[in-house]
Recover the amino acids of this structure.
């Protein structure tokens, strides 16, 4: 049991020894590694190995919003006729939710969201500058107003290398 819990380790022909306790960082509080270790009585130091200017990996480009005009998402939205007809002639280049709330006076309520990963079809390859066989994250979102009426059904297709959804889920 002590081995399974990582409290002791054995060296063949030498014996069994008590393991050094592992340092723990609580991820419920935003803090640096040094701060977390100091709170547990450890001393952490850092050493700069290199500093240089270079082209960042795709994940860094996406995280720091450095995409500079490169498309990340293709959005296909569907609306009931009474809402959709009001959109003709409007500038639809911005975010749809503020338009629904501010221009149309619709109080948004909840959304049902499902996610899956799939390969980009020809349309998504074209608009997202992807090669055949590259993945996309496909989000299906049905948004309801506060009264519960479905008002917006969307397919949001994101570049698989430039976007991720992140959730916080509480257990009650």
């Amino acid at each position: 049991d002590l081995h399974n819990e990582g409290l002791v380790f054995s060296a063949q022909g030498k014996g069994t020894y008590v393991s050094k306790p592992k340092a723990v960082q609580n991820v419920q509080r935003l803090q640096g590694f040094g701060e977390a270790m100091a709170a547990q009585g450890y001393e952490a130091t850092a050493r700069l190995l290199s500093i240089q200017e270079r082209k960042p990996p795709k994940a860094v480009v996406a995280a720091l919003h450095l995409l500079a005009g490169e498309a990340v998402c293709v959005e296909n939205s569907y609306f009931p006729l009474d809402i959709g007809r009001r959109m003709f002639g409007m500038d639809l280049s911005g975010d749809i939710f503020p338009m629904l709330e501010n221009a149309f006076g619709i109080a948004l309520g909840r959304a049902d969201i499902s996610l899956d990963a799939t390969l980009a079809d020809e349309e998504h390859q074209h608009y997202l500058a992807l090669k055949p066989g590259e993945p996309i994250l496909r989000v299906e979102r049905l948004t309801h107003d506060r009264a519960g009426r479905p008002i917006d059904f969307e397919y949001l297709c994101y570049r698989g290398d430039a976007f991720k959804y992140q959730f916080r889920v509480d257990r009650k």
Notes: Strands lie at 8-11, 15-18, 73-78, 108-119, 135-145, 150-159. Residues 1 and 56 are 45 Å apart (CA to CA).
